[in-house]
């Protein structure tokens, strides 16, 4: 049976963990704070993936959050026998594959509604207030009125010039504006 890194989780001192110098994924202070809040609420649910030398393959943001929380140890899993190419590729794949997922917005709305009814802090989900507002904001496809769009004869003219004879006319007068 093949051994997987996730078969064995062990705690390691954060002092022994080495960030990958060329990690192309960035973590803003706000996002690190979100990860830290998540760890504070639920604990460490996703170990940091390291190689046999202790260099991070996946989990840079989790390490930053652990440091922000003042943790001395974090759970780690070790990738044994991976080539340099496999490690470099996984640094990218771990982040990109998650970004390729989508959302079932109707189910997401149900979950957020229930969480709100339970008075749970929705900020812990990583969604901003703007994102939540957009999720629940239903677009209005009703026809506009003169009150919100203005009267046709009060709009600026839409002048066009004929390329052949140089005649000018207002498109509104010909039912095209």
Written description of the protein model:
This protein has 177 residues and is α+β, with helices and mostly antiparallel strands. 36% of the residues lie in helices and 14% in strands. The protein is built from six helices and six strands. It has helices spanning 29-42, 60-68, 84-99, 105-117, 129-136, 146-149; strands at 10-13, 48-51, 56-58, 73-79, 159-161, 168-170. Strands 1-4-2-3 form a four-stranded mixed sheet. A two-stranded antiparallel sheet has the order 5-6. A hairpin with a 6-residue loop joins strand 5 and strand 6. Helix 1 crosses helix 2 (60-68). The model has no long low-confidence stretch (mean pLDDT 89).
Low-confidence stretches: none
How is the biggest beta sheet arranged? 4 strands, mixed
Number of separate strands:
6
The percent range for helix content is 25-40%
Radius of gyration over all CA atoms, rounded: 27 Å
Which class do the helix and strand fractions yield? Answer: alpha+beta
Distance between the termini: 71 Å
Q: Which strand order spans the largest sheet, edge to edge or round the barrel? A: 1-4-2-3
Number of helices: 6
Mean pLDDT: 89
Overall outline: elongated
Order of helices and strands: EHEEHEHHHHEE
- Give the percentage of residues in beta strands: 5-15%
Question: How would you summarize what this structure contains?
Answer:
By secondary structure, the chain is of the alpha+beta class. It is 36% helix and 14% strand.
Question: What labels would you give this structure?
Answer:
alpha+beta; two-stranded antiparallel ribbon; 6 helices; elongated; 177 residues; 4-stranded mixed β-sheet
